[in-house]
Amino acid sequence: MTTNLLLNLTLTKQVVGAATGNQKFGFTVTYVDAITGETKTEKWNLANGGSNTLQIPYGATVTISEPSHPGYSLSFRQ
């Protein structure tokens, strides 16, 4: 019997220094399962302070992308 260990990945959108109102920002989260080789993709829209959590298999390779938005600069923090 094989048991895959799942981990929680939480992505939180934080906008610093600019009023955004209820504006939402799009994200694409893609991961490749290290055991099955299967690629999965999710698309999220998060407002300032919003977050979403995804369970991913241990050892998965994860890519998170956010398109550029006029008037904003992007940075990532682990």
Please name the defining characteristics of this protein.
three-stranded antiparallel sheet; two-stranded antiparallel sheet; 78 residues; mainly beta
Could you give a quick summary of the protein structure above?
It contains no helices and 5 strands. It has strands at 6-12, 24-32, 39-47, 51-57, 61-65.
Could you explain the architecture of this structure?
This protein starts with 5 loop residues before the first strand and ends in a 13-residue tail after the last strand. Helix content is 0%, strand content 47%. The strands form two sheets. It has a three-stranded antiparallel β-sheet with strand order 3-2-5, with no helix packed on it. A hairpin with a 6-residue loop joins strand 2 and strand 3. With 78 residues, the chain is mainly β.
Average predicted confidence as pLDDT = 87
Strand content: over 45%
Q: Which stretches are poorly predicted, pLDDT < 50 over at least 5 residues? A: none
Order of helices and strands: EEEEE
Class by alpha and beta content? mainly beta
Strand line-up in the sheet with most strands: 3-2-5
| Largest β sheet strand count, sense and barrel closure | 3 strands, antiparallel
Residue share in helix: under 10%
Rg (CA only): 15 Å
State the shape. Answer: elongated
| Helix segment tally | 0
Number of strands: 5
Please report the distance between the alpha carbons of the first and last residues.
Answer: 33 Å
What oligomeric state do these chains adopt? Answer: single chain
